[in-house]
Write a structure and sequence with these properties.
By secondary structure, the chain is an alpha/beta fold. Helix content is 33%, strand content 30%.
């Protein structure tokens, strides 16, 4: 990115999430003054095992290795009666989220970003021709007003910035996972996804963390039912939970704009605060970093955030469309889907990973014309044809 000259007011980033810290790094590397404000008094994010595509390496380079605990070369797609192995051309990465955040924090501060811990966001104010962000310092109990050239909201699924601006809360789903002793018969480099629509309209998964530990989880609409369903599934699989990890994940929608104008300053939402999450897989690590990069490029180039988001939004909209169809699948239709994803169609995943689905979508439909026929049958049964 090109270096730019800016006025004395910094870019203010609210939330030391992975997306927020990555945006801070990119801006600081181009000599833009940037300050990151985080409500926690220590940067100790909750541990959570995640599986991400190799796009993380393309975004972060060698730094991704510091957060990587394992790799996955094959993804088994399962129903109760079928299993279809999908060989991955470039292995997926199993990462520890807490390590990733710490790495990004180090990189952002080394580039010149200033990190302020123990600051609760209060409000955004306009004073004459200046926009300021108000924070409450936990250690002193007083409020501070920080002038902001641009504001980046990276404060998660339940964004306080969005609430302060009167924006509706984004819908969320519950992710609940348990670390378990991995069955010895399983390959430590094989991940699994189970489609069991009688239990959840999303999926269960197994993410191999090491040769003896895995994370097994569920995505579900109902936070009160997720733990019960997960425990039942673990019992079926004869797995004993060692500890639980959970989160609320926002759902991408095609309409809400992830930016607002306050006074003379733009407020750009990124990561979970913008619901930059693939709803087919409930994955937002890479797409959140892409959103952060789009926000940084918008600031550095003086371009519109919408134009910088164009490729990311195209990818997210495709996932949103596919998930809208999958929500109506019955178990026998998942059996049919897995059958169609085998062979040459499955080979496409050796070239196009889940973060690059747009490149595989049309070749997949051309190669297997029964896929759109199956989708049409599901939608017709669900009542979309009436």
């Amino acid at each position: 990115m090109q270096h730019v000259t800016v006025n004395d007011d910094p870019v203010v980033i609210i939330g030391a999430s992975s997306a927020g810290l990555f945006a801070a790094q990119l801006l600081a590397e181009s000599r833009v003054p940037v300050h990151v404000f985080e409500r926690a008094e220590e940067l100790q994010p909750h541990a959570r095992t995640l599986i991400v595509t190799p796009e993380l390496q393309h975004v972060l380079g060698a730094s991704a290795a510091g957060a990587t605990v394992n790799t996955v070369h094959t993804l088994d797609l399962c129903t109760r009666t079928k299993t279809v192995p999908i060989a991955l051309g470039d292995p997926d990465l199993v990462i520890e989220r807490a390590n990733l955040v710490c790495i990004l924090s180090t990189r952002a501060q080394a580039a010149g970003a200033v990190l302020h811990l123990g600051h609760d966001f209060v409000d955004i104010n306009t004073e004459r021709d200046r926009t300021t962000v108000e924070f409450r310092r936990k250690s002193h109990g007083n409020n501070v007003h920080v002038p902001a050239r641009t504001i980046i909201a990276a404060d998660g699924a339940f964004s306080h910035v969005a609430s302060a601006l009167g924006l509706p809360r984004r819908p969320t789903v519950t992710v609940m996972q348990a670390r378990v002793v991995r069955p010895r018969v399983d390959d430590e480099h094989v991940g699994k996804v189970w489609f069991l629509p009688n239990q959840t309209r999303y999926f269960y998964w197994l993410c191999p963390e090491s040769d003896d530990i895995a994370a097994v989880g569920i995505v579900d609409d109902n936070p009160r039912e997720a733990r019960r369903k997960l425990d039942g599934f673990l019992a079926e699989q004869k797995m004993r939970p060692l500890e639980y990890q959970g989160a609320y994940i926002p759902l991408y929608r095609t309409n809400p704009r992830p930016w607002r104008r306050v006074g003379r300053s733009d407020v750009l939402f990124i990561g979970d605060a913008a619901a930059q999450v693939k709803v087919t897989t409930i994955g937002g690590t890479v797409t959140g970093l892409w959103g952060a990069r789009a926000a940084a490029q918008s600031i550095l180039r003086g371009s519109s955030y919408l134009s910088e988001l164009r490729s990311l939004n195209r990818e997210l909209q495709l996932h949103w469309l596919v998930r809208g169809i999958m929500h109506h699948f019955f178990e026998h239709e998942y059996d049919a889907l897995l059958q169609l994803l085998g062979g040459r169609v499955g080979d496409l995943f050796a070239i196009h990973n889940r973060d690059r689905m747009a490149g595989a979508f049309w070749p997949m439909l051309t190669m297997q014309p029964r896929l759109p026929l199956l989708a049409a049958q599901v939608l017709w049964r669900a009542g979309f044809g009436s």
